[in-house]
């Protein structure tokens, strides 16, 4: 059986240790909190301080930056990027290659489409079709 972790050097020359999540084998940095029932697919990275709630699904190639919070049963499609300190509400759906900026907020049950970009600090709420709701 292979080792259950990998060490990666960051841009500052520091070595970060990531463990492979039991449910999906995605990489979880030390200091991140991921619920056992969350699915973190291979090729996904969850950085230190990030929190992934029960039933969340993080797709292949997703990058969840430090201190981001992913709510219960949220679905993050492959190759999306969740910025540092961003919050994704319960049951929200984030599309393929979507970019959620640092400290942005996506309300629960919202739909962010493929290739959409949410700016740093932006707060977004949509209906189930992805149409934005008034703030």
UniProtKB/TrEMBL annotation:
InterPro entries: Hexapep, Trans_hexapeptide_repeat, Trimer_LpxA-like_sf
Entry protein name: Transferase
GO molecular function, one term: transferase activity
Keyword Transferase in annotation: yes
Key words of the record: Transferase
Top-rank lineage group of the source organism: Bacteria
């Amino acid at each position: 059986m292979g080792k259950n972790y990998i060490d990666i050097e960051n841009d500052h020359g520091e070595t970060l240790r990531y463990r492979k999540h039991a449910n999906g084998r995605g990489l979880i940095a030390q200091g991140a909190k991921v619920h056992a029932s969350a699915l973190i697919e291979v090729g996904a990275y969850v950085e230190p301080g990030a929190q992934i709630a029960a039933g969340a699904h993080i797709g292949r190639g997703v990058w969840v930056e430090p201190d981001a919070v992913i709510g219960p049963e949220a679905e993050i499609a492959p190759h999306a990027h969740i910025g540092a300190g961003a919050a994704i509400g319960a049951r929200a759906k984030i599309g393929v290659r979507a970019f959620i900026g640092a400290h942005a907020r996506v309300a629960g049950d919202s739909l962010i489409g493929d290739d959409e970009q949410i700016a740093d600090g932006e707060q977004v709420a949509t209906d189930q079709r992805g149409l934005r709701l008034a703030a």
